[in-house]
Description:
heterodimer; A: mainly alpha; 11 helices; 75% helix; B: mainly alpha; two-stranded antiparallel ribbon; 15 helices; 2 strands
Amino acid sequence: xxxxxxxxxxILFGVLLGCFYAAxxxxxxxxxxxxxxxHIAHPAILVFGSYCTYxxxxxxxxxxxxxxxxxxxxxxxxxxxxxxYYETFxxxxxxxxxxxxxxxxGLALVIEVGLILAFGVDQRMVEADYIGKSLVxxxxxxxxxxxxxxxxxxxxxAGLTLYLSRTFTGRAIKAVAQDEPALRLMGANPVRxxxxxxGIATAVTALAxxxxxxxxxxxxxxxxxxxxxxxxxxxxxxLGSMTGTVAAGLILGISESIVLTQxxxxxxPAVAFGLLLVVLGIRPQGLFGR
Amino acid sequence: MTTRGxxxxxxxxxxxxxxxxxxxxxxxxxxxxxxxxxLMYVVLSTxxxxxxxxxxxxxFGTAAFFGLGAYTSVALIQSTGAPLAVQIFGAAAMSxxxxxxxxxxxxxxxxxxxxxxxxxVIFIMETLxxxxxxxxxxxxxQLLRPAPIWPFESYIKMLFVxxxxxxxxxxxxxxxIENSWIGRGLHAVRDSEEAAECSGVPTxxxxxxxxxxxxxxxxxxxxxxxxxxSFIEPASTFNLNYSIGALxxxxxxxxxxxxxPVMGALLLTSLQQYATVNISNEMNVLVVGVLLVVFVVAxxxxxxxxxxxxxxxx
Lengths: 290, 314
């Protein structure tokens, strides 16, 4: 049955979900899109962020504040991961493809199993005033948790976009992505800039992880499905494009939401992966590709 | 070359013979239940290595090809009650077709895009089979094992010997590819794709060929799975753990030679079976992850590379 109101509602939820998807993908947009690191472990770090938020939440910290508190340690974690990746793979040069991928795949697995060993396979959630309540407009009920995540997502995405286009370091990060040898000739150290950028990407992912657990309960194997969502957004966006990331997030959010209402929940997980395959087949450079 | 070739085939015949003798002599059914996955992973990682090791394209989608093979069997059993041999060939054909399609769609792109696309294929397959009621849907399907064929006294022993035959077939295919011009072409792709293309190597054709063969072998490995478990269900059939196991075995063993994935799978899966029984299921996955990271970082050429270094030092 097709109903116009149902479609409108699906689009509304799609927009909210879409901004959230953009926010969970934006770290990957920097690490994979700009820095060319095959960061398959990004979703695992996202879920790790959610669990850290959950831990801090048990001490009564609001999940958003917890996400912000987590940013500095995650920044350092990201720098360390990149440094390690650089020293062991990029620096040696040959064959980063297979080994780099296998390394991040293994890392994702270790994080996932580590979380299972520490917290078990049960779903975890956080508590806050805005979780469980809804904003009622006419016939539609919009859960506050979605609205809060939407708000944080918008601020996060806008902030990162401004940082990359307006500040000196941000522009340096973009320069590394465009032409690394040229940057080296200018006397800048591309490795240090990339390390900084990877730190930023990981810090942003920590806050995104906090939103992930606000939006819904989290379990350790959730990262597997988010491989599809985050890479779909980043590839559809065109590697490293921030505007593209938001547009791609919206496209994914709206399509998923429409499929959910029209065909049912069992088809929804395939939307991101299907879209990803279609993009790779038809337009691998994405919407706003360089 | 001919004497080495003869040695290989004698070894293969001995391996199958040993499996047959074991089926006749060993009375404990559990032995075969535990040994079957080890052989299965030998096939999976040998198949993975044809594309991943020789050509350097990392396939995360082993579970998709494996699972499609398993479900092809189920569909054949449900519709016609086909015998095991037909199931295996049918499964290989379907998974080969999937490999061909996936390869054609994404092997033009840089390696990482292919890798991500293969993850996507797993989840799309899983969703399709969750929504296909005929083969059980999300809840799964209970299957009855038919009577074993003479001379086997139990079905699980038969599956064990059948898997041993598939192992030999898979290794023979991998070895043939490795030593032929196809293998040399794939190696050239791995070292530098541009250079290979410029020297007239038909890179895309070779990659798609490797992806098809690799997929077909994974499908064949999956075909007996429903009967092994006498049950099928999408979430565990299309589990990423199969992908991880296949990839990790090949990389830990060493990807340059067909012996690498065989050794890697024998070692890793035995260790995993031991860990599952004696410690916990999570531990067995953790073992794979940690070993994978350690090997990729510290011994990038795997056990084979370590052995070679040892030989050179002497």
